[in-house]
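Support reply, case 0932

Customer input (verbatim):
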Amino acid sequence: MLEIESRREKIDEIDARIIALIKARQKASWDVQRLRRQAGGPQSDSSRESSIMVTYENALGQRGAGIAMEILAACRMQPLPRR
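Our regenerated output:
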């Protein structure tokens, strides 16, 4: 049982690092989105997002694209209301 608990603690540590990385990615992504909108461009870049999904799929297999989609969704700012 001690071995299982030790490995679960390691998983918890990894999860904490993943969460911290996603939060850092959110901030970086929001900065890019803000700059794109300020320049009059669209908030998102579908070709860039497709490339990210391919990268994840290549690294993690078929489920990688789904993971990328969830991360991308978590990193999107709410669109500005239309005036």
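We compared this against your earlier run and they match. Two observations from our side: The mean pLDDT is 93. Residues 2-74 form a domain with the Chorismate Mutase Domain, subunit A fold (CATH 1.20.59.10). Please reopen the case if you see a mismatch on your end.
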